[in-house]
Amino acid sequence: MDMFVIRGGTPLAGTVTINGAKNAALPIMAAALASSGPSVLQDVPDLVDVRTLCKLLSELGMNVNRDASGDLRLEVVDDRPHAADYELVRTMRASVCVLGPLLARRGRACISLPGGCNIGDRPIDLHLKGLAALGADIRVERGYVIAEAGRLRGARIYLGGPFGSTVTGTCNIMVAAALARGKTTIESAACEPEVVDLGNYLNNMGARISGLGTPFLEIDGVEELTGTTHRIVPDRIEAATLMIAAAVTNGDVELKNVRSQHLTAVLEKLSEIGVKIANVGENRLRITTSGELRAADCIALPYPGIPTDVQAQLMSLLACTPGISVITDKVFPDRFMHAAELARMGAMIRREGPSAIINGAGQLSGAAVMASDLRASAALVIAGLSAQGDSAIRRIYHLDRGYERLERKLRQLGAHIERVEDRADTFPHSLRLDQPQTAAELTGPHWSHPIANTTSQKRSA
Ligand code: UD1
């Protein structure tokens, strides 16, 4: 297992290019199952999740190849398989995106139920409700969802749930409805740019979907979807992660291939915190800071709000920003595993239901921490980049699911970050308790504030 060893304190500087979005690439790759011609996908990031889905799609009868230019070529060569096994689905929840395409094209899908995960309960009841409304017969047996249907038929479907709409649920229903007989209306559809990207891909293959980017979708079913060539939309979460990394280190970073119109809420919040963001060309942003950053309150909401996938990274930034900040997650209200790890670096964070109250420490101190999920890993990397001294970020296999070699991009920007195998002899000397250290080195931020939190203990100097 790999870990990152980071020496914090270097301001990031330079230019990096943002990849295509994981959350667009995965449902689009899955949707290729519903087409009858070959597709070529450009800017598909080379991630563990993408490789996992390639494996699943191969098992489902697809020819999947990445050519020398990096384009991903997908074509159905056998339309008989219809099952997605637990072993694959448990490693990647987005496998559920094959449900709608399989059902629509092959009339049957058998998909392992994904179960919960480290960011909270993640039911798929809305996916199933939508597919049932389209005429599918659905049952759950031995941990698998089994969905069967003849030709699906259009319906009026409401996709709102207790935490808003569902992103992958909207993707599943949209693909299924694209091949259904008649018209489907989806109300409370997810509006995320990745859903729009999938809709554009489907329309390029002959689907008739209107209202993309709004909560009301109208879909006129067609008989067949052909293949097409499609470029994946840039990853707004990777862009936000690198912006926050630049800000937390007082850096000067230019991002290429970033769509600022997909990041309005994040850009506004970063500006409020004191981060300077300038448009420096088409799809190019420059991130700098000048002087002190300010505490702020953030609420993660469905798009166009601040994404829940940026909540953890913002927490790292605010943990280093003097003052009291409050972060609330309305999409995944239990998504706070990173708070306890940040506390190991001296962050003062108290959890209150779906919120975290952060008493910004000014500067964190390096520590060994454990990544619990994809975006929590990114948050710990950000904290490590800004902290005083060395940090060891363990279990970064979570990070590799969603960032393509993040350490290379960060090194390109001057960060001191190494990927090493997690072994006793690679663990940073400076983090070993048996190493002689001065009292000053052992003194992290002081726990003097009244909100000093419940997840950490006072440390002695
Ligand atoms: C997608 C993203 C993920 C992001 C999330 C929220 C992909 C591959 N993943 O996940 O990175 O964090 O959107 O923006 O695109 N819910 C229900 N019933 C359902 C489905 C969801 O109650 O049937 C709830 C969930 O528990 C959650 C909220 O709705 O509280 C949003 O979940 P959803 O949009 O479905 O997330 P994913 O599509 O799994």
From TrEMBL:
UDP-N-acetyl-alpha-D-glucosamine binds at R93, R122, P123, I124, D125, L126, D309, V331. The active site is at C117. Residues 7-410 form the Enolpyruvate transferase domain. Its EC number is 2.5.1.7. Residues 451-461 have a biased composition (Polar residues). It catalyses: phosphoenolpyruvate + UDP-N-acetyl-alpha-D-glucosamine = UDP-N-acetyl-3-O-(1-carboxyvinyl)-alpha-D-glucosamine + phosphate. GO terms for molecular function: UDP-N-acetylglucosamine 1-carboxyvinyltransferase activity. GO terms for biological process: cell division; cell wall organization; peptidoglycan biosynthetic process; regulation of cell shape; UDP-N-acetylgalactosamine biosynthetic process. Phosphoenolpyruvate binds at K22, N23. Pfam families: EPSP_synthase. Keywords: Cell cycle, Cell division, Cell shape, Cell wall biogenesis/degradation, Cytoplasm, Peptidoglycan synthesis, Pyruvate, Transferase. CDD domains: UdpNAET. GO terms for cellular component: cytoplasm. It is an enzyme of class 2 (transferase). InterPro entries: Enolpyruvate_Tfrase_dom (IPR001986), Enolpyruvate_Tfrase_sf (IPR036968), MurA_subfamily (IPR050068), RNA3'P_cycl/enolpyr_Trfase_a/b (IPR013792), UDP_GlcNAc_COvinyl_MurA (IPR005750). It is found in: Cytoplasm. The keyword Iron-sulfur does not apply. SUPFAM superfamilies: EPT/RTPC-like. Pathway: Cell wall biogenesis; peptidoglycan biosynthesis. Residues 438-461 are annotated as: Disordered. It comes from the Bacteria. The modification 2-(S-cysteinyl)pyruvic acid O-phosphothioketal is found at C117. Cell wall formation. Adds enolpyruvyl to UDP-N-acetylglucosamine. Belongs to the EPSP synthase family. MurA subfamily. This is UDP-N-acetylglucosamine 1-carboxyvinyltransferase. The gene is murA.
